[in-house]
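Co-fold these.
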Amino acid sequence: MQSVILSTATRLLVGLILVFAVYLLWRGHHLPGGGFAAALVAATGFALFVLAEGPAAVRRALRADPRQITAAGLAMALAAGILPLLWAEPFLTGLWWTPEAGPALGTPLIFDAGVFLAVLGAVLTLVLALEEH
Amino acid sequence: MAAHSAHRHADARAGWLPALLPLAIFLAAAARVPASAAGAQRVVVLDWVPSLGVSLNLNVDGLSLLFVLIVSFVGAVVFVFCGVYLGGHPHRLRFYALLSAFMLSMLALVLVDNLVALFVFWELTTLTSYLLIGFEHDQAAARANARQALLVTGAGGLVLLVGILLLGRMAGSTDVSALVARGQALRAHPLYLPALVCILVGALTKSAQFPFHFWLPNAMAAPTPISAFLHSATMVKAGIYLMARLHPVLGGTAAWMGTLVVVGAITALLGAFLAMGQKDLKRLLAYTTIMALGIMTMFLGGRTTPTLTAAMTFLMVHALYKSALFLVVGTIDHQTGSRHLPDLGGLGRAMPLTGLAAAAAALSMAGFPLFFGFVGKEIMYKGALTEDLFPDFATLAALVSNALMTAVAAILLLRVFAGRLRVPGDTPREAGAGMWLGPLMLGGLGIFFGVCPDWVGRHLIEPAVLAFHPQADQIHLKRFFGFNEALLLSVVTLVFGALAYAGRGALARLIGALEQRPPFSPERIYARLLEFTAVFAAHHTRIVQNGSLQRYLAVIFMAVVAGAGIPALRAGFNLPAIDPILETLALVEILLVALMSAALAVVVAARTRLLAVCGLGVVGAGSAMIFLWHGAPDVALTQLLVETLTVIIVALVLLRLPPLPRPLSSPGRRVLNAAVALAAGTLVAGLLLAVGGSELDRSVTAYYEAYSYTKAHGRNIVNVILVDFRSFDTLGEIVVVAVAGLAGLALICGGKPCNR
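Predicted complex below.
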């Protein structure tokens, strides 16, 4: 079922939703948000995309298989854990870089991005498979 | 065509690059040899789990160094060999990754000082071995044999863990260095025997000792270089290593000596005897490996310097000749397409360099003078004669199995390489340099060490023995120990070996008949156990996991009510007065609860799934609003998002489901469901009230509040807990989410491949 209204609105909305998801991920350390919530928002955006344009269009737009997105997320989270080992700190210790100006950056941000990708990939795997089969 | 052959050529050299890793390790270890021979020991301190007393301290002493040298040298040879052997195999990258992972685990196993850490690497070698045996995973036999090796050695590993934990309780530490210091007290401890039994079960399964030996010949399903590396030179010797390492802690008692000497002798005799009846060259070598492991176990059962020196010398002799022979068999298989003994003959002329390597290795195996094997055998008889327990038995066992070993070496050399050329296909050609160079080097070392045993004895064997047997009376290896009993026994061995070779036909027929109808077969017991487990699991699953989600939920909620409700009732619910709570309720909260109750009524009464799902969505959104009202925006946000996605996913699923049956369930069932729901709801409400009414321990909260910004640079405590303070939990959770996604995908695809 193709609906002109739905697909036109989706075009506008999906981009906004994804930007909002990244914003949630970024601000999560200080304000409500974070990787998990951001992943759910992004997944909702993609779900809307799936309903409007069909799963094939979403797969084309994603470029990567959602399972690979999950794997990349797990690898990122793991990397954030292993990195401190190089500085002889225990696994998953947060390492921070605090520049004079601007926000503090640290491995927990990498970890949270990993959470984002892992959850997003897992939800997309299910949504796309359900729509295709 | 030219490009194709150039590509093949590049593939054949693919092994040289990964071989750099073991080569570098070998050179680094070799640089330590002079210091180690001078008695130096190097300890590298690395903390791992200090709260459990588990460290990753590395202890480089003579014993570790001997193993590191063997593992890295044979590793380098095997990597180069694999470059040619695997050629353009589609999964060769996976192969190198697994092989490197195995090698590093094995190296860590022989270097760590802590037994818990040793156990971890022990199991890593088991796992990588499983994956390597099952490398050709499209063959059912490879999968079954890999599983057998995994189950036998994995079960042994678990028993070993029990033994390690027992030792830890007895000594208060699981560091080998600490255990050695308390050896005397540990051997007198009432828990000594249980700990000894557990540790020996682990070591003996890993090193394929009777009655657990059967997994090793089956592990020959692995590609041949794997057998050369794991199943002859390294992994199967992990058990030997552990027994040597713990010799000063547990060894020297009657229980230790009796068990090891008897088990080792039986294994050696059984392996040597069964090897005579094998037609497949790889299985033949596997049985001779069992024999060699039996001999080492038997000698580790002793406690005198000659016996322990014999064990270490033979360890090295065997590693050199056996890995060379395995690689030679791999070459034969690769060049002729067969490793079936009756099909082969006269290969020496067609493949002279491979034949030369085979000759050097086989003569060392047979124990000819001027070969390292001769030195090994001399010291072996010297050791057997000085055993504390059963010296005659040990000598006899060593004599018979060595004689049979000589006969097997003769079969390998004379039947396969000498005589008229006999191959199943075309006349074979010599293999590439990557294939013959390694075996030739291993065989050459066997000659070099046989000619100058003095050097290898002082630099490698003596430091290894000293590491676990610190006595002054070291045995110096010699090319020739003079005219004594040991020399006489060596001559007798060669004569008996010649006799066994002459009678090989009769022996093979006898073994063939015995293998058809074995009087006692541990392998059959293993098969029965496996069958029984499968049947039991199927039966058990039919009862517990019958597929009805309603029943699962009912059981879960009843268990919660019983498990939490009964203790709570017994302790006496300390409910606070309800009136003051009701008075503080805001109008918004009352309205939200009313809305949720109405939605719940809709869910219960709904006649279509869509209506029920929408009702549940309202309930979820209502609880999110309540979270928001109480100042938990993060929880509310997540709750709302989860509700939204659930509605989307359920809506997608709904399209695939048949309409709800009418009536949904019997009246009796509805009453039961209502009762369970009421009980669970009452319990949760009561618990929440009780928790809210009691004094909470706020120390954890205070910690998070105090350090969230100062240490973790975040003002949102919920997020800081998730990604920093308790990020290990989160890591586990996202793995669960990922696995759930994959499992859901498998269910949706219904067993068909999901790849589009």
